[in-house]
Specification:
With 124 residues, this protein is mainly alpha-helical. 83% of the residues lie in helices and 5% in strands.
Amino acid sequence: MWREFKEFLSHRNVVDLAVGVIIGSALTTLVKSFVNDFINPLIGLVINRSQLAGLHFTIGKADFAYGDFINDFISFLLTAFIVFLVIKGMNQIFRKQEEVAESTQSEELSTLKEIRDLLKKDAD
């Protein structure tokens, strides 16, 4: 069982997942800071409040803190957009690598076909 566990941990996917979780956590912290320190003050200029987090309304005894929701929603949108940009960039890099590999393979294939044809010609 210990050996299987070591094999599981040694697979690259597990390490990639761990790195992704750590970077995602750091990105979330960074985006929350950006929203709280830059976006909220800009919105605050428009609505004459310094923080969105304090925005709320009350119906009966229920208090609805919609300012917190707006903060979290903006953070989510920014995080999702950054992840989209990263994945889009990675896809472009992988596509270029695949194109280079395909062109190399097609050159090798045409060279092999030429060799085959020459050998076939010599055999005749």
